[in-house]
């Protein structure tokens, strides 16, 4: 049994994307169980001053739900040719604490329900790009954009949303099968583990030119180390890197 967190990118009570998520279970492979998460609107705007330990209750619920999920399905509208602000804010909270956020190494499907017939792909692409950049494995194909959502998403005899568009149903079935395979093989987590094994070296290669430039511009060793710790590098490692830069 795989536990899938279903996340709508819209807060609207009658959101088509929320309805799309609730129409997924009949299209999913056996053993895929959906948990609907409608709480991203409870998250405050991300502010590092509010990113405390222990976390704010809404933040703690969000991060715990992500940690407990085997995979995610995100259905989001396209706002102004990109990702909705409320969804980006939720992703920002899920990417922290720096280097230890729960939104990494996950298998993820992204889909869009839209009113028209020619929009949605830019929002789909931007959402997928951001999630991939955080170290997740996003199912790239098939791309799922459900057009004419008011007519494609009806209400079934049981009162639950029902997807009637045959093309969208087929594409979603294929995408969810791919998601199930990625979860079964643990490919997303394995890929992330391979990166994390080399995290220290990658961080060093990223920060070394920055440290060197700061020292050349007259920054003291303490100031350079403080910049590194502010970026999430532990104090001992920061001090070591500054010393290496001085010897370079």
Automatic annotation (TrEMBL):
Q: Where is the NADPH-dependent FMN reductase-like domain?
A: 3-149
| GO cellular component terms, A-Z | cytosol
InterPro entries to which the protein is assigned, alphabetical: Flavoprotein-like_sf (IPR029039), FMN_Rdtase-like_dom (IPR005025), NAD(P)H-dep_reductase (IPR050712)
Molecular-function GO terms, alphabetical: FMN binding; oxidoreductase activity
Q: Which residues form a coiled coil?
A: none
Output the PANTHER family linked to this UniProt entry.
CHROMATE REDUCTASE (PTHR30543), NAD(P)H-DEPENDENT FMN REDUCTASE LOT6 (PTHR30543:SF21)
Name of the featured protein: NAD(P)H-dependent oxidoreductase
């Amino acid at each position: 049994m795989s536990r899938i967190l279903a996340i709508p990118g819209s807060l609207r009570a009658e959101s088509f994307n929320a309805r799309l998520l609730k129409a997924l279970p009949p299209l999913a492979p056996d053993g895929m169980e959906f948990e609907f998460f409608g709480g991203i609107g409870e998250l405050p705007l991300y502010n590092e001053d509010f990113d405390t330990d222990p976390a704010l209750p809404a933040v703690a619920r969000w991060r715990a739900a992500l940690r407990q999920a085997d995979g995610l399905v995100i259905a989001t509208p396209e706002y102004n040719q990109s990702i909705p602000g409320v969804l980006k804010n939720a992703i920002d909270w899920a990417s922290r604490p720096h280097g230890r956020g729960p939104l990494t190494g996950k298998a993820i499907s992204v889909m869009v329900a839209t009113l028209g017939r020619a929009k949605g792909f830019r929002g789909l692409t931007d959402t997928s790009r951001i999630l991939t950049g955080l170290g997740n494995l996003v199912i790239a194909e098939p791309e799922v954009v459900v057009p004419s959502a008011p007519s494609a998403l009806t209400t079934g005899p049981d009162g639950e949303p029902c997807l009637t568009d045959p093309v969208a149903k087929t594409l979603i079935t294929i995408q969810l099968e791919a998601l199930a395979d990625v979860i079964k093989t643990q490919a997303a987590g394995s890929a992330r583990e391979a990166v994390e094994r080399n995290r220290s070296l990658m961080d060093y290669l990223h920060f070394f030119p920055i440290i060197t430039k700061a020292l050349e511009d007259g920054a003291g060793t303490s100031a350079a180390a403080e910049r590194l710790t502010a970026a999430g590098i532990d104090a001992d490692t920061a001090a070591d890197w500054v010393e290496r830069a001085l010897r370079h």
